[in-house]
Protein backbone atom coordinates (compact mmCIF):
# COMPACT_ATOMS: atom_id res chain seq x y z
CA UNK A 1 0.00 0.00 0.00
CA UNK A 2 1.32 3.44 -0.85
CA UNK A 3 0.60 6.72 0.83
CA UNK A 4 1.60 10.31 0.25
CA UNK A 5 3.62 10.20 3.47
CA UNK A 6 5.99 7.55 2.06
CA UNK A 7 9.44 8.85 1.19
CA UNK A 8 10.28 8.03 -2.42
CA UNK A 9 13.41 5.85 -2.60
CA UNK A 10 16.38 7.48 -4.29
CA UNK A 11 17.44 5.90 -7.61
CA UNK A 12 20.19 3.27 -7.15
CA UNK A 13 23.48 3.99 -8.91
CA UNK A 14 23.81 2.05 -12.12
CA UNK A 15 26.40 -0.72 -12.11
CA UNK A 16 28.39 -1.54 -15.23
CA UNK A 17 27.04 -4.64 -16.93
CA UNK A 18 28.97 -7.12 -19.05
CA UNK A 19 27.28 -5.77 -22.20
CA UNK A 20 28.14 -2.22 -21.13
CA UNK A 21 31.79 -3.17 -20.65
CA UNK A 22 31.87 -4.95 -24.00
CA UNK A 23 30.40 -1.90 -25.70
CA UNK A 24 32.73 0.60 -24.06
CA UNK A 25 35.87 -1.58 -24.10
CA UNK A 26 38.23 -2.44 -21.26
CA UNK A 27 38.27 0.23 -18.54
CA UNK A 28 42.07 0.22 -18.26
CA UNK A 29 44.74 0.24 -20.90
CA UNK A 30 47.17 -2.70 -20.83
CA UNK A 31 50.60 -1.98 -19.29
CA UNK A 32 53.29 -0.90 -21.74
CA UNK A 33 55.45 -3.89 -22.67
CA UNK A 34 58.70 -3.54 -24.55
CA UNK A 35 57.99 -6.57 -26.66
CA UNK A 36 61.33 -6.56 -28.46
CA UNK A 37 63.35 -6.48 -25.23
CA UNK A 38 61.07 -9.04 -23.61
CA UNK A 39 61.38 -11.42 -26.55
CA UNK A 40 65.16 -11.09 -26.48
CA UNK A 41 65.28 -11.78 -22.73
CA UNK A 42 63.00 -14.80 -23.10
CA UNK A 43 64.98 -16.16 -26.03
CA UNK A 44 68.22 -15.95 -24.02
CA UNK A 45 66.63 -17.66 -20.98
CA UNK A 46 65.37 -20.47 -23.22
CA UNK A 47 68.73 -20.83 -24.97
CA UNK A 48 70.65 -20.91 -21.66
CA UNK A 49 68.25 -23.42 -20.10
CA UNK A 50 68.64 -25.72 -23.09
CA UNK A 51 72.43 -25.50 -23.04
CA UNK A 52 72.66 -26.09 -19.25
CA UNK A 53 69.87 -28.62 -18.79
CA UNK A 54 69.23 -29.94 -22.29
CA UNK A 55 65.58 -28.85 -22.00
CA UNK A 56 63.36 -26.01 -20.84
CA UNK A 57 63.31 -24.69 -17.29
CA UNK A 58 60.69 -25.88 -14.77
CA UNK A 59 59.75 -23.62 -11.86
CA UNK A 60 58.09 -24.50 -8.55
CA UNK A 61 56.78 -21.70 -6.35
CA UNK A 62 56.47 -21.79 -2.57
CA UNK A 63 54.62 -18.91 -0.94
CA UNK A 64 56.34 -18.96 2.44
CA UNK A 65 54.14 -16.20 3.87
CA UNK A 66 53.84 -13.39 1.33
CA UNK A 67 51.15 -10.72 0.99
CA UNK A 68 50.50 -12.18 -2.51
CA UNK A 69 51.93 -9.13 -4.27
CA UNK A 70 54.90 -11.15 -5.52
CA UNK A 71 52.58 -13.97 -6.66
CA UNK A 72 50.55 -11.52 -8.73
CA UNK A 73 53.70 -10.50 -10.62
CA UNK A 74 54.71 -14.15 -11.08
CA UNK A 75 51.21 -14.92 -12.35
CA UNK A 76 51.55 -11.99 -14.74
CA UNK A 77 54.45 -13.82 -16.40
CA UNK A 78 51.88 -16.35 -17.61
CA UNK A 79 49.31 -13.87 -18.90
CA UNK A 80 48.88 -13.00 -22.61
CA UNK A 81 51.12 -9.89 -22.32
CA UNK A 82 54.22 -11.73 -21.09
CA UNK A 83 53.32 -15.30 -22.12
CA UNK A 84 56.25 -17.02 -20.40
CA UNK A 85 55.54 -20.41 -21.95
CA UNK A 86 56.53 -19.22 -25.41
CA UNK A 87 60.11 -19.17 -24.03
CA UNK A 88 59.81 -22.73 -22.76
CA UNK A 89 59.52 -21.78 -19.08
CA UNK A 90 56.75 -23.42 -17.13
CA UNK A 91 55.43 -23.69 -13.61
CA UNK A 92 55.10 -27.26 -12.39
CA UNK A 93 52.87 -28.64 -9.65
CA UNK A 94 55.30 -31.22 -8.30
CA UNK A 95 58.70 -30.28 -6.87
CA UNK A 96 60.01 -33.55 -8.32
CA UNK A 97 59.64 -32.03 -11.80
CA UNK A 98 61.29 -28.70 -10.93
CA UNK A 99 64.74 -27.18 -11.56
CA UNK A 100 64.18 -23.88 -9.76
CA UNK A 101 62.50 -23.27 -6.42
CA UNK A 102 61.01 -19.76 -6.26
CA UNK A 103 60.33 -18.55 -2.73
CA UNK A 104 58.14 -15.53 -1.96
CA UNK A 105 57.44 -13.80 1.33
CA UNK A 106 59.25 -13.89 4.63
CA UNK A 107 59.41 -17.48 5.84
CA UNK A 108 56.73 -17.83 8.49
CA UNK A 109 57.09 -20.37 11.27
CA UNK A 110 54.11 -22.26 9.87
CA UNK A 111 55.67 -22.56 6.41
CA UNK A 112 59.19 -23.52 7.43
CA UNK A 113 58.69 -27.27 7.23
CA UNK A 114 56.77 -27.05 3.93
CA UNK A 115 59.62 -25.01 2.42
CA UNK A 116 62.28 -27.45 3.63
CA UNK A 117 60.34 -30.46 2.38
CA UNK A 118 59.75 -28.88 -1.03
CA UNK A 119 63.45 -28.03 -1.29
CA UNK A 120 64.50 -31.60 -0.47
CA UNK A 121 61.94 -33.05 -2.92
CA UNK A 122 63.50 -31.20 -5.89
CA UNK A 123 66.12 -33.39 -7.58
CA UNK A 124 69.73 -32.14 -7.86
CA UNK A 125 71.02 -30.04 -9.47
CA UNK A 126 68.62 -27.30 -8.38
CA UNK A 127 68.55 -23.55 -7.87
CA UNK A 128 66.73 -21.50 -5.27
CA UNK A 129 65.58 -17.96 -6.04
CA UNK A 130 64.28 -15.59 -3.36
CA UNK A 131 61.66 -13.44 -5.11
CA UNK A 132 61.03 -9.98 -3.64
CA UNK A 133 62.35 -8.06 -0.66
CA UNK A 134 60.58 -10.24 1.91
CA UNK A 135 62.15 -13.48 0.69
CA UNK A 136 65.51 -11.76 0.17
CA UNK A 137 65.80 -10.08 3.58
CA UNK A 138 62.60 -10.54 5.57
CA UNK A 139 61.48 -7.14 4.25
CA UNK A 140 58.60 -5.41 6.00
CA UNK A 141 58.07 -8.38 8.27
CA UNK A 142 61.59 -8.67 9.70
CA UNK A 143 61.48 -9.23 13.41
CA UNK A 144 57.84 -10.24 13.43
CA UNK A 145 57.13 -12.96 16.00
CA UNK A 146 55.48 -15.17 13.35
CA UNK A 147 58.38 -14.99 10.87
CA UNK A 148 61.76 -16.66 10.70
CA UNK A 149 62.96 -14.14 8.10
CA UNK A 150 64.76 -14.42 4.77
CA UNK A 151 64.51 -17.61 2.69
CA UNK A 152 68.28 -18.01 3.06
CA UNK A 153 67.85 -18.71 6.76
CA UNK A 154 66.01 -21.93 5.85
CA UNK A 155 67.29 -23.07 2.42
CA UNK A 156 70.46 -22.20 0.44
CA UNK A 157 69.61 -19.32 -1.90
CA UNK A 158 71.41 -18.90 -5.24
CA UNK A 159 69.84 -15.60 -6.28
CA UNK A 160 67.72 -12.88 -4.71
CA UNK A 161 65.54 -10.68 -6.93
CA UNK A 162 64.80 -7.46 -5.02
CA UNK A 163 61.63 -5.40 -5.34
CA UNK A 164 58.33 -5.02 -3.56
CA UNK A 165 57.22 -6.69 -5.70
CA UNK A 166 59.69 -7.20 -8.58
CA UNK A 167 58.14 -6.62 -12.01
CA UNK A 168 57.70 -9.50 -14.48
CA UNK A 169 60.57 -8.26 -16.65
CA UNK A 170 62.87 -8.13 -13.62
CA UNK A 171 61.87 -11.70 -12.75
CA UNK A 172 62.77 -12.83 -16.25
CA UNK A 173 66.08 -10.92 -16.10
CA UNK A 174 66.79 -12.60 -12.73
CA UNK A 175 66.23 -16.06 -14.19
CA UNK A 176 68.58 -15.20 -17.04
CA UNK A 177 71.26 -14.00 -14.59
CA UNK A 178 70.87 -17.27 -12.70
CA UNK A 179 71.37 -19.37 -15.81
CA UNK A 180 74.24 -17.23 -17.06
CA UNK A 181 76.14 -17.23 -13.77
CA UNK A 182 79.16 -19.47 -13.80
CA UNK A 183 78.13 -20.62 -10.35
CA UNK A 184 76.69 -24.08 -9.99
CA UNK A 185 73.53 -24.51 -7.92
CA UNK A 186 74.21 -24.09 -4.17
CA UNK A 187 73.51 -27.80 -3.64
CA UNK A 188 74.12 -30.07 -6.62
S1 LIG B 1 58.16 -8.15 -1.25
FE1 LIG B 1 56.39 -6.76 -1.14
S2 LIG B 1 54.92 -7.69 -2.57
FE2 LIG B 1 56.42 -9.28 -2.10
S3 LIG B 1 55.56 -10.43 -0.36
FE3 LIG B 1 56.84 -8.79 0.50
S4 LIG B 1 55.46 -7.09 0.90
FE4 LIG B 1 54.42 -8.50 -0.51
What's this, in brief?
With 188 residues, this protein is α/β, with parallel strands linked by helices. It has helices at residues 18-24, 35-53, 69-76, 112-121, 132-137, 168-180; strands at residues 58-63, 90-91, 100-104, 107-108, 127-131, 147-149, 159-161.
Question: Main traits of this protein?
Answer:
binds iron/sulfur cluster; 188 residues; iron-sulfur; Rossmann fold; five-stranded parallel sheet; alpha/beta
Bound molecules: iron/sulfur cluster
Overall structural class, as computed from helix and strand content, comes to alpha/beta
Number of contiguous helices: 6
Strand content: 5-15%
In the CATH hierarchy, the architecture is 3-Layer(aba) Sandwich
Keywords: 4Fe-4S, Iron, Iron-sulfur, Metal-binding
GO molecular function: 4 iron, 4 sulfur cluster binding; metal ion binding
Organism: Methylacidimicrobium cyclopophantes
Protein name: NADH-quinone oxidoreductase subunit B
Describe the structure.
By secondary structure, the protein is an alpha/beta fold. The chain has one domain (34-180): Rossmann fold, CATH 3.40.50. Helices cover 34% and strands 14% of the residues. The chain is built from six helices and seven strands. The chain has a five-stranded parallel sheet with strand order 2-1-3-5-7, sandwiched between helices. Strands 4-6 form a two-stranded antiparallel ribbon. Helix 2 (35-53) packs parallel to helix 6 (168-180). The radius of gyration is 22 Å and the shape is globular. Bound molecules: iron/sulfur cluster. Residues 66-67, 69-70, 104-105, 132-134, 139-140, 164-165 line the site of iron/sulfur cluster. Residues 67-178 form the NADH:ubiquinone oxidoreductase-like 20kDa subunit domain. Keywords: 4Fe-4S, Iron, Iron-sulfur, Metal-binding. Residues 1-35 are annotated as: Disordered. One of its GO terms (molecular function) is metal ion binding.
